[in-house]
User: Fold this.
Amino acid sequence: MHKQLYNLISVFVLASMLLASCGGGGQQAASTEPEVLRVWIQWGDNPQQIQELFDKYTAISGIKVEVTAPLEEDKILPSLTGSEPPDVLVLSGGDLVKSYAKEGLVTELSDIIKTGGIDLNDFFEAPLRQCKSGDQILCLPWGTDMYALFWNKDMFEAAGLDPEIPPKTMEELAEFADKMTVRDADGKLTQVGFLPDQGWDHSDLYVRMFGGFWYSEDGTQMTANSQPMIDSLTWQQQFYTKYNADDVLALSAGWADAYMSADYPFYTGKMAMYVDGEWMTGPNFINAFKPEASYGVAPFPPPADHPERANTAVVQGTVAVIPAGAKNKDASAKLLAWMMSPEIVAEEFCFNANLPTSKKAATDPCFTENPKFKVFTDLMSSPNATIIVTTPISLEFNDAYGVVLERAVHNGEDPKSLLDDLQAEFEPKLQEALK
Amino acid sequence: MEELQIKRKWTWPPRLPKWSHSDRLNFRTGMLFLLPWTIGFLAFTLYPMVASFYYSFTIYHPRLPNEWIGLQNYVNLWNDKLFWQALSNTLYMVAIGVPLTLLASFFCAVLLNLKVRGQSIYRVIYFLPSIVPTVASTILWLWILNPQTGILNTLLGHIGIQGPNWMSNPNWSKPGLILLGMWGMGSTIVIYLSGLQDVPISLLEAAELDGASWWQRLWNITVPMVSPITLFNLITGVIAQFQYFAQAYVFRGFQALGYPLNSTLFYSVYLYQNGFLWLKMGYASAMAWVLFIIILICTVLLLKVSERFTYYAG
Amino acid sequence: MRGDEMTTQTTNQILRTEMDEETRKRMRMHKIRNFFKSMFSHAIINFIGLFFLVPFLWMLLTAFKSSQDVFHTPPRWLPYDNVFVDVNGEQLPLYNVQTENGLKQLAAVKIVEGVGTFVDPANPGQQMEYEIQQGATKIAEPILHVSFKWQNFPDAMERGSRPGIGASFWVYFRNSLIIAFFSIVGTLFSNTPVAYAFARLKFPGRDILFVIILATMMLPFQVTMIPIYLFFNDFLGWGNTFLPLIIPTFFANAYDVFLLRQFFRTIPEEMCDAARVDGASEWQIFTRIVLPLSVPVLATVTVFTFLWAWNDFTGPLLFLTSPKNFTMALGLQDFQSQRSMIWNQLMAAATVFTVPIVIAFFFAQKTFIQGIKLTGSKE
Assistant:
């Protein structure tokens, strides 16, 4: 009896050892010189190219860099809080960094910037602002994004509009959209002129166009139910309610899932205009999926009664953080410094068609060659370029706002009462978090 | 069983029955055989239960010590609109989805029990979708339910019905998920089928000779005879449906969890969102315990109610 | 129903003896009614059968479609692909182009930003440029024919959910197999002794413990999920490995214990008693008598465990973070969440994901059904 029991236990132990050996990656030896560094990037336009970029770091440092891109949203917090966080984490936007900092999840970078020889003055002011919290620097921007209006020239022509001339005001945009929202003989919608929230929410752009934001500029007050917020939701609503929201939703079901494919409605003649970012003009999107597409891009138009707000665009961008739990901060710091060097910034974002965050890198001619991309570089240096204000409660607020957006825009509910509720819920939370 | 009953005489104050030598030996052997389960129970059931119970009274911080807040999580839960939405979504699936699926499986089993040519082929066809892995079938149905390009609405269109917006209309997302669930009910059909085949033919023949119609035979003989199966599947179905997660997670595609408008925000999805997206693990633990209690209540209720309706042959 | 048909036969025999006009008419009506009844049942069985069959067929057919076809409205059944023509050794797609001289079939060399460069296959020297679409009218449309694109399968498997980072579906497949294999090993090793103890051993407290095991079936996984996640991930540091998925299977679970116990109880007590009288220890009885007789139920448990491990999504979702370690279930969901909408390849991968189960089912058909019956029909 005992002999068999011991045999059983030893088999079990052997099996566990076998398992541990073929259990896949993820562990790393915590020595002074790590063999593998892990970089996790939330976006992933072209994971293969990014891995190749980081292989260059391997060439000069001898340390292998494992890139994981893209990352799902629900992997970000667990990655920061787990026992094996990545060595560098690149987030799609800086709006949640303050929330993470509140929980002690990111490393403050001032020292690393000094010792790593990173030149803070080389960064453009706007993207860097989202990383600063008082005197602390919580992240460093790595490539930045801006949004503009994209339109499908063929659909303009079919509707009798001049394909080279985009709408000049937000009101004109609605008129154009009306002409290009078409139903077939059975009354079913076959195409829409404009979807305000295609891909993801662009309320930040619209609310700036209406002259406000949901926080005060210094981030100390909640202004969720201010007039610009109400106007932004009301303006967005019309593109659903005018054409029967159910029909629009039926047509656009699954469009968000087609973003990286040839069946994206912008390419297949189902959506004539929408707001998107500068990366679309690069090699990874339109040129990759639908080179036949004939499209134009221009700054999003201002409202007719506020022409001074022309060329307003929101600068948001990806930021790199070093998780507080990173095993080898020195190695992470060196990698971060390399990532921030102007040559690497120029190379990566020339290829990926993103805006450079380094002033030196911005002098590279590749950023001005492509006339469509140049629209964005011009926007970045426009005096009306603004930023997203962030606070420690951004994480929760964004989720709650998402539901409000859906209810107002898709469901046609009254924006004012929804926003009043939102304001009532989050103003005290903001004050609490800022203490 | 008998021997043990005789030995256990309950007295006050309670005294543990004295164990004979053979009792002790048997106990040791039994425990050795049970070792894998015992360790597993302590490590993966008892410890986590105690731990999550403790967490439910704290605010979880990853790098700082947990904050004890007593019943605050439960109070917050009571006041949380999304909690009630999640609960009602799950109850919808439990109260509508489970009985509907059971009914449909029974119906299909009755069909498959008929003497028709090619019956074995039909049985395979009805069963095969149930072994398609969950993720694959959910993704497949994402496409089938697409209001513009999916075959369901196209086929409905052929017979003149305007198919609803299964994916973006909050009133139709759950029915869509129920359809998906019904597609995979093959294993329940098989269980019912074997139950049907166990119904004694003599009973049915006698009833027919007495003039009972097909429906009367079904309702008065067959249904009661398979009622143990119905009860078992009802209980396991309810317990499983309360934990519905994977399909809802995959079904929302790239939209936020619970899309559209939180109609697919089921209890375990909201729990996952709290625990892993927002790192409110204390709150999520409180939700888990509330769920456990709800399941217990439902199971007890079901058992009590079923006593009057279940018929055990023999 | 079966009983129904048999009684009708006997009834017919009885009726044939006493024939009169009335009875004969009634018999004919009876026959006609039965005919319509069977037509009706056939129709319903077929109709419902379609509900089960059509999505399955759709999945298979889509796996063969080309990218031309994937989101065609209205959806087409058969897969279509470009017709290719050989021009100077290159395979170029053929288009119907509205030229100045009417509709011509031209091969497309390249298409950039809405303008296509075409050549006449008969006259490849001269290149012509045409806009693909002017306004709402399509100038150039690709020519398609029915074609099963087998290439989708190797393409999908090679590509994985994120191309270019060394994690193809083959890797996911392998990971799923590893996890399934060790889960089966763990399940068989741990559940059999436990089930035997409850089936055939007598010891004080046995029934209480069994009730506890049954009670754990009612425990939702959410109650234990968070502490187990923190335990494996933070405390043990086993995040991103297969261990959190496999180790728990070595510690028995209520369902398999229940199933095995049901079966063990059908093994005749006399055999075990005889062995006990001969002085065999419980362990010997277990390994030498009970286990060899239990091969059918062990096969069932193997098949069920394989099905469960292959299917498992929540576990991998929680614990596996780097794509190299994904299982196929997680990989498929990852593919779909990449927003790339390559439905044909996605369905091809889904088919490959389903195939091992279907094969296992056909090989183990009897044990499969047996096992389902064992869990479901008897209390």
Summary: Chain B touches chain C through 109 residues (CB under 8 Å). The beta strands of chain B are 58-59, 67-68.
